[in-house]
Amino acid sequence: MTQHTGIRRVALSLAAVGLPVLPLRGKVPFGNCHACADNACGGRPNMKSAGPCRCPAPCHAWAAATTDPAVIASPAWSPAWRAAASVAYHPGGAGLTVVDLDNAAAVAWARATLPATRTVPTTRGEHWIYRGTMRSVNAVRDGVDIKSTMAYVRWRGPGTRAITALPEVVRALAVKESSAVRPASQALTVPAPAGEGECRHRTPAYLERGIAMAEQRITEARKGVHATVYRTFLAVLSAHGRCGCLTGAHVARLFAAAQAKGESPRHCTDAWTNARTRLGL
Fold it and tell me: Is the CB of residue 14 less than 8 Å from the CB of residue 155?
């Protein structure tokens, strides 16, 4: 049995018990399949921009995660499985939240603070898995990330102990993180240029998906956060800045994601302004 056959078998077994799975290239998902090379499909979550890609291959990171064995075993996914180093799953898609503890201090904190639940050893720490979903937030404490909706987690084995319900102490970590973030001003709403007020994308779902993917891209940035924020703002404005569909609420979501990664309100405003200027908006 080849390595990729074994990895795909693991994926199929996980999908059979309700875990939406996707292949990983090292530690990250596959970015572009052949049909989507160089962003030809119009947009990639976690890549250059967000867009309405309909490619059947696994090129949408967590959004490509599936429990459908026909999709997992399909020829379209075969190149990714052949190159895959491991399997990941989308915890939010399975109704789960993973508290990712990345060092010994974080593990010690969890053991003293959090209710016992299923625990999976990792290279540097542990994953604590709870039943229930919430928004994903990185760096809620030193060495502690929360992975649930719009996130993926590398499969490292079934772990030990029974899964317990998501406790309020974990939800409160995200609330505490959000409370320190100042929302963007409504004055930052992008106006619709004259004669272009109707959204050319025709459906609110397209915009919502684009904003959600932009939030995820910022949230998952491990380095170069300032540059990532600017490129993400630029991508959102490239797709949605001229049709008048962006609102202050959308901008506030992007600013909140950036500030949760340590960007100041001033940096957010400057990045947004610079992106608009570059696009002539």
Answer: yes
**Could you tell me the pTM of the whole model?**
0.60
Q: Model confidence over 125-157: pLDDT tens digits?
A: 999 999 999 888 888 888 999 999 888 999 999
Give the integer Cα–Cα distance in Å for 250 and 188.
Answer: 10
Strands 126-131 and 118-121, how do they pair? antiparallel
Residue range 234-278, pLDDT digits in tens = 888 877 777 777 777 788 888 888 888 888 887 788 788 878 777
Token pair in block for residue 31: 């970015």
Tens-place pLDDT, residues 28-80:
777 555 665 544 555 444 333 334 456 655 566 777 788 999 989 988 788 88
Per-residue burial over 187-223, b if 16 or more Cβ lie within 10 Å, else e, is: ebbbebeeeeeebebeeeebbebbbbbbbbbbbbbee
Length of the chain: 281
Contact call for residues 171 and 134 (beta carbons, < 8 A): yes
Q: Are 146 and 98 in contact (CB under 8 A)?
A: yes
Q: Which of 42, 153, 49, 158 lies closest to 93 in space, CA to CA?
A: 153
Q: Count H helices, E strands: the chain?
A: 9, 10
Q: Is there a contact between 244 and 193 (Cβ–Cβ < 8 Å)?
A: yes
d(CA 268, CA 256): 9
Q: Do the bridges between strand 126-131 and strand 164-165 make them parallel or antiparallel, or are there none, so unpaired? A: parallel
Separation of alpha carbons 231 and 49, rounded Å: 9
Query: Cα separation of 133 and 183, whole Å?
Result: 23
Contacts of 124 (CB under 8 A, 6+ apart): 102, 103
In the chain, the percentage of residues whose pLDDT exceeds 90 is 33
